[in-house]
Amino acid sequence: MAAIWEDCDELTFPDEAAWYAERPHHLGASEIAVLLGHGYASDSVYSLYQEKIGEYVKPWTKDEQERLDRGKRAERFIAGEYEAIECQAVVIDETPVIRVWREWPVLSCTIDGRIFSRGEWVPIEMKFLGLHQRNEFRDEAAPLKYSIQLQAQMSVLGASHGILAVMFGNDLEVRIVERHDVLIEQMRLRARSFWDDHVQKRVAPDIDDSEATWNAIRYVHREPDKTAVLLPDDIYQCVEDYQIASDKEKESKKLAQQMKSKIADHIGRNTYGYFGDGTTVSWKEGSRSRQFRILKKAPKEVIEAINNDN
């Protein structure tokens, strides 16, 4: 396939499984976001490192295939809505494609689609988000985590801007993300440092406090034998810190449970409890039991009650 963008080459694959198998040899746009501290909760720098050296392999399962299929259907729906509202055609690759930066092919991206804008092809990132995430789109600018992914795509493609199209229920939100060369240069430097200093040299990055790192460690050491190992002295401090943190966590859970019970007892059979400043506690009926939450924003029922009090 002839490359649409001059700055990159295109690798095409017959199916998602083949595309997935190629990914460990490159750093994609969502992985650049991980390196900058704005990735998804399922990823960390440490887990990414283990993936790239082949130690942490997320198996291609039926669930993974179904998740991708749902995502593709959602993207086509959003593309149709975008075309109807913005009057611009969205082109989606028929088979999986990884686009690699010609100057350093480790840097890559897989785009949701592309549109012809301002005389050039630019990437469009399409998301289906829950209504609770709409607060992230109050400003004119795109949220940082999505902006970073688009900047990483522009870094590979050489595009001057990118489009973010997000569906909230029946509503479409569109943001234009302009190319930021300073940020792109920092991305490239961070990516090269990670690849050269860690992946190529097989030097693991620092272990952080994320669930993603813990999951990667559990996978890498998933088949223990019955031998024993002498631990270094500096790990003894980790053992002590873990015991202290575990004890505090237990006490914290007990205290939280006690406070929750006291609040719930005062709410009684009401759905909400509130204070004069609008701080609200919700104790709603859930699918199996009542769900206890402290709300960031007072619902309309509470606002009406406050107004009546005043």
What does this structure look like?
By secondary structure, this protein is of the alpha+beta class. It folds into two domains: 8-199, Lambda Exonuclease, Chain A (Alpha-Beta Complex), CATH 3.90.320; 233-309, no CATH class. It has helices at 16-22, 29-35, 45-52, 62-86, 144-157, 181-199, 211-220, 233-267, 300-309, and strands spanning 8-12, 97-101, 108-109, 113-117, 120-129, 161-168, 171-178, 272-274, 280-285, 290-295. α2 (29-35) packs across α5. The longest helix has 35 residues, at 233-267. The mean pLDDT is 90.
**Residue fraction in strands:** 15-25%
Strand ordering within the main sheet? 4-5-6-7
Count of β-strands: 10
Q: What characteristic shape results from the CA principal axes?
A: globular
Largest sheet: 4 strands, mixed
Average pLDDT confidence is: 90
Query: SSE order, as H and E?
Result: EHHHHEEEEHEEHHHEEEH
Q: Please, how many helices?
A: 9
Instruction: Please give the radius of gyration in angstroms.
Output: 24 Å
Structural class category: alpha+beta
- CATH architecture verdict of the largest domain: Alpha-Beta Complex
- In total, the number of domains comes to 2
CATH C-level category of the largest domain: Alpha Beta
Please give the alpha-carbon distance between the first and last residues: 69 Å
**Are there runs of 5+ residues with pLDDT below 50, and where?**
none
- Fraction of residues in helix: 40-55%
Write down the CATH topology of the largest domain.
Answer: Lambda Exonuclease, Chain A
